[in-house]
Amino acid sequence: MSINFDRHIDRKSTSDLKWHTSLVKGYLNVDISEDMIPMWLADTDFACAPCIQKALHDRVDKEIYGYCAPMKPFYDAVCWWQKERFGVETDPSWITMCPTVVSSINVAIRAFTNEGDGVIIQQPVYDPFATIVKRTKRRVVDNGLKLENGRYVMDYELLEQQASDPNTKMIVLCSPHNPVGRVWEKEELKRLCEICVRNHVLIVSDEIHADIVYEGHVHTSILNVDPAYRDQMILLSAPGKTFNIPGLKTGYAIIPDKDLHHAFNETQLDMSLDVRNTFALEGLQAAYSPDGEAWMKEELAYLQHNVEVIKNFLKDEMPEVTMIEPEGTFLCWLDFKKLGYSDQELMKRIIIDAAVVCVPGPWFGNGGQQHLRLNIGVPTDLLLEALNRIKTAIQ
Ligand SMILES: Cc1ncc(COP(=O)(O)O)c(C=O)c1O
To answer: Would you list the DSSP string of 78-92?
Structure first.
């Protein structure tokens, strides 16, 4: 197999969120010119794997798209992928199909915390974490990441204090981390788990980016940190990012503890989120297969190349912009502090005038100021055009 990731695919003829200026405007509240390069939303511009396309076509040919339920092929596919990619032995009875990872975070917060309880997150982090905590009337407890020698690390002393507050009930971990690109090492996760478990803080680990991990780094599943901790954790994931199928709604939760699993399912039912999409089943089963894995390895090589492209460009052409070396994810976290521009100025120059639509750093909370997040899951020539536009915009 050799996939052409350089191909440009028309996404304006579909209802794709990323490529319509009217929809971007709704998010950013600014006018964006039609020649924008959208590098904001976290989906890639790559065609999804041929094995997924075939599975969907085959399902379309079956003519009826009635109510459906995950069956053995679904559970087998999740178990296979978790074992094959991360060495996790999963019992099918631990798995629940969910619409999305974000809806599952919402379910977990409602199931296992009460209004007013503290939920730890580690900012700067994927913005829906804070949004859900606030919308469910819980409290954001920010265990902000620290930047040490150009690499973000966790603040364990602060975590110890925050977790020991009896009103702190949960941590939502982003592993790998969006937007800072960290792939947490086993020892780091062990320290986090030890503190949380000792203080009865339930661990919810969002591992949606776990497949996109670059050379020299290894994703450790939260379930493999220490089997002794398994009864206090929930793993959430989906093939949506890796295989560019987030529109299919292919989320799942893995919850080894029987009581937690039952409570999660009950809350999902309370929220009428026990809904299944026929095409999600087909999409996940095709993605989590040997053919899907072969495709993913090619995608990973392409993304790794894009990381090198952006690194070299910044070094040679824009040394005043610092990129935090991504260890995983197709999202790059760019630090513009040395230029001294405010967030409004960065928005004006880069997003509005140059029409390179990145995510403004403040979306990710504390520590996001004077940063932008750039999605490099795009053909390399588009990445280069965006970088050239940014270079001109900041001069
Ligand atoms: C860390 C993280 N979790 C979840 C999601 C969204 O996943 P879903 O569409 O399954 O809710 C994203 C998308 O950017 C993400 O970065």
So the answer is: HHHHHHHHH-----G
| Residue 133 domain boundaries | 53-289
Find out whether the beta carbon of 208 lies less than 6 Å from any atom of ligand 1.
Answer: yes
Statement to judge: residues 169 and 219 lie in one domain: yes
Do 33 and 68 belong together in one domain?
Answer: no
One domain for residues 63 and 79: yes
Residue 1 has pLDDT above 70, yes or no: no
Query: How many domains are there within the chain?
Result: 2
Q: 100-146, pLDDT tens digit by residue?
A: 999 999 999 999 999 999 999 999 999 999 999 999 999 999 999 99
Residue for token pair 């937690």: 260
Whether 84 shows a pLDDT value over 70: the answer reads: yes
Q: Is 328 in the pocket of ligand 1 (CB under 6 A)?
A: no
Residue 151 parent element (H or E): strand 151-153
The pLDDT of 10-37, averaged and rounded, is 91
- Are 117 and 237 found together in one domain? yes
Q: Where would I find the H helices in the chain?
A: 21-28, 50-60, 72-86, 101-112, 128-135, 156-163, 186-198, 258-270, 278-287, 290-317, 343-346, 380-394
- The residue type of 185 is E
> Looking at residue 39, which CATH number applies to its domain?
3.90.1150.10
Using DSSP, state whether 278 is helix, strand or coil. Answer: helix
Q: Are 357 and 385 in contact (CB under 8 A)?
A: no
* Residues paired with residue 174 on neighbouring β-strands, in sequence order: 206
What is the Cα Rg of the chain in Å? 21
pTM flag (> 0.90): yes
Is residue 3 included in any domain, yes or no?
Answer: no
Q: Assess whether the C-beta atom of 38 lies below 6 angstroms from ligand 1.
A: no
In the β-sheet with 322-324, what is the strand arrangement from edge to edge? 322-324, 331-335, 371-375, 359-360
Q: Report in angstroms the alpha-carbon separations of 289 from 73, 93, 283.
A: 11, 20, 10
Q: Tell me if 97 CB under 6 Å of ligand 1.
A: no
